[in-house]
Write a structure and sequence with these properties.
Blueprint (H helix, E strand, L loop, with lengths): L5 E5 L12 H15 L3 E4 L19 H11 L4 E4 L2 E2 L5 H15 L3 E6 L4 H7 L6 H20 L5 E2 L4 E2 L16 E4 L6 H8 L2 E4 L3 H18 L7 E10 L3 H14 L4 H7 E4 L1 H13 L4 E5 L7 H11 L3
Parallel strand pairs: 1-2, 1-12, 2-3, 3-5, 4-5, 5-8, 8-9, 9-10, 10-11, 10-12
Antiparallel strand pairs: 6-7
Helix pairs in contact: 1-11, 2-3, 3-5, 6-7, 10-11
Length: about 325
Amino acid sequence: MGVTRFGLQVPSFTYPGVRDDQLFGSVADIAGAAEQSGFDSLWVMDHFYQIQGVGPRTDPMLESYTLLGALAARTSTISLGTMVTGVTYRNPALLAKQVTTLDLISGGRAILGIGGAWNEDEHKGYGFEYPPIGERLDRLEEALQICRAMFTQAEPSFSGTHYRIESALNFPRPLRPDGIPILVGGGGERRTLALVAKYADACNIFGDVATIRHKLEVLERHCEAIGRDPATITKTRLGGLVIADSTELAQQRGREMARARGMDEERYRGYAIAGDPDSVGEQVAEFLDAGLDGLVFNMHDAHEIEPVRLAGRTLTGIF
């Protein structure tokens, strides 16, 4: 099956009429609906401030691994991960321990999603270093090596420019013999996709059909250069999903989503799949024909629950 076929990302914790003390219950309801309707993975962002394009920076934001641990106890089959962890936010050995703990709590359903980090605002606010992009990607490569080693080896050691471990223990072990799958987020053609080819079980990229096709061609070239079969990498795309029983209602909700997220028409059309179930199916098929193995969606109206159920039923019929 690969790492995921179709997943739901929850990027916002701002729901009409929901108080802070009711917030986790609402997120758990979304997770439960996603699982019951057929989604095979659930993702949350690894941010401390809300990000531009989703809402104001002062909107509520929950810490990702605390939340995923709680959701692991409320679900039973759906895989759980971040889309994606910023490499600069945690020592990679500690991150490996956190994700392994999530794997234990969830009964073997954890995924490590990780990327080079980008939100300078929250780095400054929380006092994290924000090195240039080249160094962040150097750190990402070292973190990938450390996490893989801690998932698969008993007492690994590693000494790099930025991180090191010495006979690091990670007991109890991940539940799967081959370790926890690693997804690298980002579509940088020179460095990020090369790291995907070398280290990752999965990748996640953004863009319209033409952009996705191009990025996957670049990934294939990186795989060819090191002798790896690109079919061993689960290739996914993150974007919005607006689905309703009628095209008219989907268009209305799509306009609401674009307005709420400050998207112009061009950006919205490049980001979101929208329509009734038949139309959504046709658009999903275009992305799969471009070479993707799976799709991850976020939904502006997920807190209403029924759109999540409709999406799950629709996507189950496609994959």
